[in-house]
Every structure is written in C-alpha cells, then in structure tokens.
Design a protein that fits this description.
31% strand, alpha/beta, binds zinc ion, 243 residues, 7-stranded mixed beta sheet, 7 helices
Length: 243
C-alpha cells in the first residue's frame, strides 16, 4: 500500500437511545468515523447531530455522548486538521457539525446534493450546517475510488444519493461502513423491508443486495451498521482504532 492509503479507522460513538417497539425495546446508537492515512491526511465521515438538536415530540431523547469536535480533540486534532469530509447523506443526525470543517473538501453524491439544494424536506432540518457558504463541495456520481483502499459506494434508498464507505486497512482488511443503507445488523438480508424514514424500498433493497455482494466479493471482515446500538457495544471505539 502507498502512503496515501488508510492506516487507521477510528469509531466515534455519539448519541445512544432506547426506543420502545412492539414487544420490547431497540437499542440505537449513532456514530461518525475518522480515517487516518499513511501520509497524514485525516478524513472524516459524517459529523453527528447538532448541539442544539431537540427530538421531535413523542420521540425519546437520546443520551448525548461526546460530539465529534470533542472526539477529535481527544486525538489531538482540531476541525482544521480534517482534509476531507465524506458526506453520506444530509439527514440531521449526520450533518450537525459540517459547518466547522471549512478547511476540508466535502464529498457527496451529486444526487443527494442536488435534491437537498432543491429544497427536499428531509434535508431542511440540517441545512444551516451542510449548506454553510464557507463549505467547499466536490460532487461525485456513483461508486468512486477516493484513494487506493478507500471507495465510496452509492447506496440510495434510505435517502436519494446516500453513500456507504469501503475502507481497506493494513491489518484488519476490508471494513464496510454501511451507514443508513443498513441501520441494523438484522436488516442485512436480501429481502429486507424499509423502515419509516426510508425514501424508497425497492432501491433500499437493491442497495442492500449490492452491499451483500460486495461483502462476499471483497471478503469484508467487518460490516458496521448505521445505528445498531447492540453492535456498537462490541466495536472498538476511539481513542482505540482499527488498523
Ligand atoms: Zn442516520
């Protein structure tokens, strides 16, 4: 691997919440991710809920852990040290600190960006954060290798132009960050159903199958699901890292 390849992957756990569901409760958690490359770049994936977020009426309020800025500080990093910010999609729980990363290049699927700029309802809540005038965007179309060992995978269905991330690490091997294409481990099946909040069930299923194929083909050693609170308990979290 060359110097510009991923060397470490840090998992930042953000909020966690227990959601009542039929017959019990569901542990949900959210996170964002930091990749360090061999040549010293710091690539952030998503930025979590904004500081001033209040849940909609009727929704349980989350336990707030450290935010992304505090997680970076623990590693001796400031927002200006982030060279690239990968935007998986513009839902509020993924964009809340984007406006802190004015030195970074932000990378998003063109479809997601254009739908959001066009005023789609779901991206409106976080707009002050992702549509800040100081931010620089690079728009991409479909699957894109960003660096050797770092590929963005277009996985629409949860949101239009949503993307997942495949990271090849020197020791761990290929790690798939499914993000909200697959929010829980138990939804990672070919015939899965959509959840409320998903944009398009047919596309979501196609994206899930695309990721199932990728896991097989690339011999992925670890799949991290978007909001699986139970899985988060077993993951290696920052300041530790996968190498
Ligand atoms: Zn989400």
């Amino acid at each position: 691997m060359t110097g510009a390849s991923p060397r470490r992957l840090y998992l930042f756990q953000l909020e966690s919440v227990t959601v009542p569901v039929a017959g019990g409760t569901l542990e949900m958690s959210s996170g964002c991710y930091l990749i360090e490359t061999g040549d010293g770049q710091h690539i952030l994936i998503d930025s979590g809920l904004p500081v001033d977020y209040t849940p909609p009426p009727g929704m349980p309020s989350a336990h707030h852990g450290k935010d992304v800025i505090a997680h970076l500080a623990d590693l001796g990093l400031r927002p200006d040290d982030i060279t690239t910010l990968i935007c998986t999609h513009f839902d509020i729980d993924h964009v809340g600190h984007h406006d802190a990363f004015t030195k970074a290049e932000l990378i998003v699927q063109r479809e997601q960006y254009e739908r959001a700029r066009g005023g789609d309802e779901r991206s409106a809540a976080g707009r002050a954060h992702w549509d800040h005038p100081a931010l620089r965007y690079r728009l991409i179309d479909g699957d894109t290798e960003l660096l050797p060992g770092l590929t963005l995978i277009e996985t629409g269905g949860h949101a239009p132009g949503h993307q997942s991330v495949l990271v090849r690490l020197p020791r761990t091997g290929p790690v798939l960050l499914a993000i909200d294409a697959v929010v829980m481990q138990r939804l990672f099946t070919p015939d899965r159903r959509a959840w409320p909040g998903d944009d398009n069930e047919e596309q979501l299923r196609a994206s899930t199958r695309k990721l199932l194929d990728l896991v097989e083909r690339e011999q992925v050693t670890l799949v991290i699901f978007g909001h699986d609170g139970q899985q988060w308990q077993s993951l290696t979290k920052a300041p530790e890292s996968y190498e």
